[in-house]
Design goal:
The structure holds two protein chains of two kinds. Chain A is of the alpha+beta class. In chain A, about 35% of the residues lie in helices and about 15% in strands. Chain A contains six helices and five strands, in the order E-E-H-E-E-E-H-H-H-H-H. Chain B is an alpha+beta fold. Chain B is globular. Chain B has a seven-stranded mixed β-sheet with strand order 10-11-8-18-15-16-17, with helices on both faces. Chain B is built from 22 helices and 27 strands. Classes of the chains: A alpha+beta, B alpha+beta.
Amino acid sequence: MAIEFKVNGRDVSVEADADTPLLWALREDLQLTGTKFGCGIAACGACSVHVDGQITRSCSVPISEIAGRSVTTIEGLKGSDGALHTVQRAWIEAQVPQCGYCQSGQIMAAVALIEATGSPSDAQIDEAMTNICRCGTYPRIRKAILAATGQAAAALQGDA
Amino acid sequence: MADNPTPHLDMPIEAAPPKKKKGMVRRAFLVGSALLVGGGVFGVYWSDSSARARAKTLTETGNDRNFLGWMKIAEDDTVTVYSPHIDFGQGSHTALGQMLADELDADWSKVRVEQAPADTAFANTPLGKGFLAEMSGAPGVINALPGALIAMIARSLPLQITGGSSAVRYTGQVGMRTVGAAVRLALIEEAADRLGVPTSELTTADSKVIHAKSGKALRYGELAAGAAERSLSSDPVLKTRDQFTLIGKPVPRLDIPAKVDGSAVYGIDLVLPEMRVATIAAAPVRGGKLLSVDEKPALAVTGLEKVIKLDDAVIVVAKRYWQAQKGLKALSPQFSDGGHGNVSSASIYSAQEALRKAGKPENEGGEGDVDAAFGVAGAKTLTAEYRVPFLHHAMMEPFALTGHYAQGKLTLWGGLQDPLSTRARAAKAAGIAMDDVVFNPMIMGGGFGRRFPDMTEIIDQVALLAKQVPYPVKLIWSREEEVRHGTYRPQSSAQLKATLGQDGRISAWRTDYVQSGDAEGETSFIYAIPATSRRHFSYQSNQMDGPWRSVNSTQIGFCNESFIDELAHSAGEDPYQFRRKHLPAGSRHLKVLDTVAQRAGWGSPLPEGVGRGIAIVESFGTIVAEVIEASVREDGSPKVLKAWAVVDCGTTVNPLNAEAQIAGGLIMGLSSAIGEAITLDKGAVVQSNFNDYNILKLADAPPMIDVHFLESGAKIGGIGEPGVPPASPALANALFAATGKRIRTLPILTQAKA
């Protein structure tokens, strides 16, 4: 069946079984491979995207539930002029990624957190940033979020 | 073409301490069949003319000029460095580029680092040389091998491995720097001829040869064609520390921009025309075989095209991954248990204990008469048993490999740790010649020791699968498949026994250590004790275990550094001061230990319920000491509050990346200690995914990790692995300090709930 929704501001129509997870429609039908497959059970967050602005683990949402909604992926974070999002810039500045595989999801989670809270506290970061990073980039993720929200002084205290 | 008539690379390689020959076995296994230990055999030496010609045809386009298969210079001055090592996130590509570019005096903004093609023309001699020297303890023998012999035996050996924290240590130090320096000299000679001035009047900077007297300068891009025709020096003078412009500098990593905007293409992301997607279920009990499967339920699923039976697995092929998953779930394959139906984690520990008690070690290291020391009247003896479980690598990108078989040739795309060995293994599985296999290395979502071709069944699976379908096919392992069919860090157990003499020092120490393979020679025993005995017993279960970030150093580090803590408390001494007493005065180890204690404020008062633990481990030529502050939550789970790491790896090539590697390693060590375990029941792995394999998350990682490097200038050590081993004992020691409860079995969470 054809399911219509918006991705990164663009109208799309995907021909797929209704139970196909959004993740696989993004990756295989729309070739948006920046969103990653990590576990398939919403446990790791590598597949995180925004659905109507809400952080969503796309591996566990059937595409039938996405009809008519608006999805933002890592590829859609850049501005219309191609400039990186503040959070992406902070990620480069803090040299966060190692293998990088989880970072699309981490960045999407961070953007959602910042949009919801403005300037997240350490406790809010702890609560919201539940994506797994096996390389152990957590201290730099925290630092980048603080730096991206004008809390650079706090960010400096996190050394790594 | 400029041929170097006497290929010779004279960089001295320091002697490693002599080790018993048996101690080499496990490391040899780790680097795989690529290295034939003891046979004096290693890979392509400083490329000979045919290899260089091949390297040129593989990489030169337009007027680019390739030098030795290691780098090329384009007319616009762009320098491309070819790394024989893969980069799965450890930052080695940037570090290797820095090392070559520094000696070359290249403009860093115009330097690119690419994965070398999976071709013997790009095989990695310095690595073979370095590894062999470290393992055999006889570098003189290696350097004395005649170049002709080396060239003769070299070509057939695949050697593009990444492991043992080797990239910077060997390839960078021996290879990249020498190539950069040699090419720089050729560029100077070319410029001298063109300008008609002596080479002594020329200097280099920012990819230019400069003649200060006349104010003239020639760009490397202008000089490359001529320089490439020149004979290259095999032993150029390398820079001294004070001359470095890139080595030791916090250069941003080259790969990061593509990892923040989703544009980096990993192996799992590959899309090819007409490509199909496959997924797999292998026998739940390793060693079991596929008995039967009714294909019909799968074939009823939309998009499902084919069910393929392997000896020990069933594969389904579909247009889309989700369809393949549904097809696989519709099947009820029957597997045998290969006679391993009684294996459990408990049965492995029991068998290990029995083996240990039988007293016939595979290997023994140490010195002095331990038994005599144990028998001294009045000596205080302490005995303890430690156990650590199998660990899953949990690389975030599940295995994915794409293959296309057409006209007798197999082409592969994906991320594996040794591109050349990947070709060799695929050729064997497909029953074709290695020359008929092309492998295209891609970016990897982590590795941690999981992607060695020797232990990578997905290569065989794809080789067999690709031969049965006419289109390209990408095989993706589900996370469940990856968790249940890993090449885990071995489940291991040890009994440690030591005596304290009248002087309060350890007079004798024995470790009886059991796991698969033979771990002796893997971890440096750093303490000065009159009598030591390290006995290694080899027990192989039905599981395929292998190297897990830092190989055996996490298990052995946990045992040793926990036990010395026990001894300290038994002697009524402070654990830091007690360690000090057993480290030689003036040693690098002592300096690392003192520095971490000082930075962590060792001895200063702590809030109630908070404990402080310390540990020091040397692995892969690097000494790391860590201090952890931790407390225990109401539910018994540990809360890590702060962490410090002090590192002596000789010289840091890229401090920014080195810090990330150490901090990440420390977190991985904590994660494994707190919550990770692969357990077995009825021969099969119990865990299935990240819901029951517990990896530390941000909230549980220390928000502050203070990483500090001591630039001792000693021989360069590894950086990707050595941050891991001290973390688990430092945490266990901190929890003992906080609670008085000694942790001898990991993971801690299982113990807390028990």
